[in-house]
């Protein structure tokens, strides 16, 4: 076992000859095998990871992610490897190119160890909507790890990899990070190229990073962010200077009382966040309540827009150019319908149907345009808040990790669990989950910190500072 | 909002999905709940607000139209369940009248 701490510390040990990339990969493979029942990986690239480690061990020049063992969510493409978005419809599909983020990891010496279990097409908050079965919570196997990047969070938590790339459309990186007790960053919209990320809601999706600490997140973000010819929504400049400073800084911090006192929130989460606010004040930070009266409209707006985008994005799965074919049929239309009916899971179909409804003639303005208008209001209000404040702090979820099956019966109960995370995706801001709390049930939960615009640099600097307390 | 069999039939045709009778009842009940849920937005007066269409302020990001990252024909066909050496294969699209 290499007892991984951080990228910096691992690199120090490699430099001094105390460990090697090969040892690191072997250690991860050992833990993947040991915690197999958690179902975190859909496929492990064991042999080639060892080969790559041996190659890296022989190299003089070392990249920023030299030998860093990384797992990728099963909706991120890696050339000549399978990718399925945990869906039957992509069973057997082999990627013909790598996501820009993956290419950048590889160029800096990373080792990709495997593809990780998730909710089908990222649609879910518990990792139960996977064609490969649920991933289990690392500390309590009767509970879910959160989703949709559940496998990615569990793998980091249990040392099966050092860092994971997940994706976050409405909280899919932050929620599992919260439930599992690790760090999870959703960068601002456009910070990381979406090229090679299987699309769910294109104006919401963002590749995110799950790691053991903020410093590792900063290093990986520095590598994968930046403009990309293959994603016109990738911003023209990368967030610069992601190095942490050890200097204590003072910030202006907002919180929404409507969230902390929300009727759905576990009182214990509410109390601990209030205590945390007092602690921040005692540290000399300026923390103020800001009213957010659109709170109850956030989740409905999110579900109208993401299901609309999903119904459009998922229309490409026809079972002809790729995907699963359910076999011979009479004509082309029934061929499409049969392939899709067999290939997609229940939640995916539900969302395609709602998305088709809100986009259909006669309902388009009342639902889709209306939701875009509310999104504009949310966007403008958020901009105003960040005129006066550096950060917003909030819970990630109203509860700790739910039991398996607890949320999955009722789609609305599942959707309401996203109430505090979808806000950052609706407004395009970066937000991070920090593992700072412990519940009386002994399970971890996190604190969410969001920053305005493309302020990942100050967000990471501030949250690094918080984690040093 | 009336969610009836006709609406389910229309939406499943538009989204190219098939549901059996039991699934139809289930999706109907789900849609009633989901549409009721998103109807919440009707409480808000949004008149005069421009819909938010793009997340990034950078519109029309252009680049030189260079040929790169191309797939060969063999690669493009590789993931197709039904194909020959040149084409994707699909069921007959236009049928001769009987």
UniProtKB/TrEMBL annotation, chain A:
Active site positions: 73 (charge relay system), 148 (charge relay system), 172 (acyl-ester intermediate)
Chain ranges of the Amidase domain: 25-460
GO cellular component, one term: glutamyl-tRNA(Gln) amidotransferase complex
Nucleotide-binding recorded as keyword: yes
InterPro entries: Amidase (IPR000120), Amidase_dom (IPR023631), AS_sf (IPR036928), GatA (IPR004412)
Matching Gene3D superfamilies: Amidase signature (AS) domain
GO molecular function: ATP binding; glutaminyl-tRNA synthase (glutamine-hydrolyzing) activity; transferase activity
Region named Disordered: 129-149
Keyword terms of this UniProt record: ATP-binding, Ligase, Nucleotide-binding, Protein biosynthesis, Transferase
Oligomeric and partner information: Heterotrimer of A, B and C subunits.
NCBIfam families the record matches: gatA
Family: Belongs to the amidase family. GatA subfamily.
Protein name per its UniProtKB record: Glutamyl-tRNA(Gln) amidotransferase subunit A
Species classification: Bacteria, Pseudomonadati, Bacteroidota, Chitinophagia, Chitinophagales
Gene name in the database record: gatA
Automatic annotation (TrEMBL), chain B:
Tagged with keyword Nucleotide-binding: yes
A GO MF label: glutaminyl-tRNA synthase (glutamine-hydrolyzing) activity
GO biological process, one term: translation
SUPFAM superfamilies: Glu-tRNAGln amidotransferase C subunit
Catalyzed chemical reaction(s): L-glutamyl-tRNA(Gln) + L-glutamine + ATP + H2O = L-glutaminyl-tRNA(Gln) + L-glutamate + ADP + phosphate + H(+); L-aspartyl-tRNA(Asn) + L-glutamine + ATP + H2O = L-asparaginyl-tRNA(Asn) + L-glutamate + ADP + phosphate + 2 H(+)
Keywords (A to Z) from UniProt: ATP-binding, Ligase, Nucleotide-binding, Protein biosynthesis, Transferase
EC annotation from Swiss-Prot or TrEMBL: 6.3.5.-
Quaternary structure and partners: Heterotrimer of A, B and C subunits.
Family the entry assigns: Belongs to the GatC family.
Purpose of the protein: Allows the formation of correctly charged Asn-tRNA(Asn) or Gln-tRNA(Gln) through the transamidation of misacylated Asp-tRNA(Asn) or Glu-tRNA(Gln) in organisms which lack either or both of asparaginyl-tRNA or glutaminyl-tRNA synthetases. The reaction takes place in the presence of glutamine and ATP through an activated phospho-Asp-tRNA(Asn) or phospho-Glu-tRNA(Gln).
Protein name, entry field: Aspartyl/glutamyl-tRNA(Asn/Gln) amidotransferase subunit C
Lineage: Bacteria, Pseudomonadati, Bacteroidota, Chitinophagia, Chitinophagales
Annotated gene: gatC
């Amino acid at each position: 076992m290499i007892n991984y701490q951080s990228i910096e510390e691992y690199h120090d040990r490699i430099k001094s000859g105390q460990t090697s990339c090969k040892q690191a990969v072997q250690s991860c493979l050992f833990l993947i095998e040991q915690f197999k029942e958690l179902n975190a990986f859909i496929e492990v690239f064991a042999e080639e990871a060892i080969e790559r480690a041996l190659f890296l061990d022989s190299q003089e020049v070392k990249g920023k992610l030299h030998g860093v063992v990384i797992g990728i969510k099963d909706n991120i493409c890696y050339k000549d490897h399978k990718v399925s978005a945990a869906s039957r419809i992509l069973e057997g599909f082999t990627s013909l190119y790598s996501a820009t983020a993956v290419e950048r990891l590889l160029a800096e010496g990373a080792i990709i160890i495997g593809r990780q279990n998730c909710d089908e097409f990222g649609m879910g908050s518990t990792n139960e909507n996977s064609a490969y079965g649920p991933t289990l919570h690392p500390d309590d196997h009767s509970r879910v790890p959160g989703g949709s990047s559940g496998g990615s969070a569990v793998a980091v938590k249990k040392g099966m990899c050092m860092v994971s790339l997940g994706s976050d459309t409405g909280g899919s990186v932050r929620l599992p990070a919260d439930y599992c007790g690790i760090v999870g960053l959703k960068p601002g919209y456009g910070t990381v190229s979406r090229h090679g990320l299987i699309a769910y809601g294109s104006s919401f999706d963002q590749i995110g990073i799950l790691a053991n600490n903020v410093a590792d997140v900063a290093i990986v973000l520095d590598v994968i962010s930046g403009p990309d010819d293959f994603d016109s929504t990738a911003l023209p400049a990368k967030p610069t200077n992601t190095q942490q400073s050890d200097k204590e800084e003072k910030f202006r911090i907002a919180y929404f009382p409507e969230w902390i006192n929300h009727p759905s929130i576990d009182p214990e989460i509410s109390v601990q966040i209030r205590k945390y606010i007092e602690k921040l004040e005692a540290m000399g930070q300026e923390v103020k309540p800001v009213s957010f009266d659109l709170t109850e409209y956030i989740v409905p707006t999110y579900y109208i827009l993401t299901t609309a985008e999903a119904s459009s994005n998922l229309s490409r799965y026809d079972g002809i150019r790729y995907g699963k074919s359910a076999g011979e049929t009479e004509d082309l239309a029934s061929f499409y319908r049969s392939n899709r009916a067999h290939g997609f899971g229940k939640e995916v179909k539900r969302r395609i149907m709602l998305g088709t409804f809100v986009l259909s003639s006669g309902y388009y303005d009342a639902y889709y345009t209306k939701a875009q208008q509310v999104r504009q209001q949310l966007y403008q209000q958020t901009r105003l808040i960040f005129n006066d404040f550096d950060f917003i702090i909030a819970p990630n979820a109203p509860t700790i990790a739910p039991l398996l099956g607890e949320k999955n019966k009722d789609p609305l109960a599942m959707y309401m669990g996203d109430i505090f995370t979808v806000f950052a995706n609706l407004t395009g801001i970066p937000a991070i989950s920090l593992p700072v709390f412990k519940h009386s049930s002994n399970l971890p939960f996190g604190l969410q910190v969001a920053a305005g615009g493309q302020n990942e640099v100050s967000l990471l600097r501030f949250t690094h500072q918080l984690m040093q307390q | 909002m009336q969610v009836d069999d006709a609406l389910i039939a229309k939406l499943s045709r538009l989204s190219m999905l098939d549901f059996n009778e039991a699934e139809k009842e289930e999706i109907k009940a789900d849609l009633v709940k989901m549409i009721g849920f998103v109807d919440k937005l009707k409480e808000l007066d949004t008149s005069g607000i421009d819909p938010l269409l793009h997340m990034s302020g950078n519109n029309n990001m252009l680049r030189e139209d260079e040929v790169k990252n191309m797939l060969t024909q063999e690669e493009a066909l590789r993931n197709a369940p039904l194909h020959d050496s040149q084409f994707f294969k699909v069921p007959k699209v236009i049928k001769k009248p009987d």
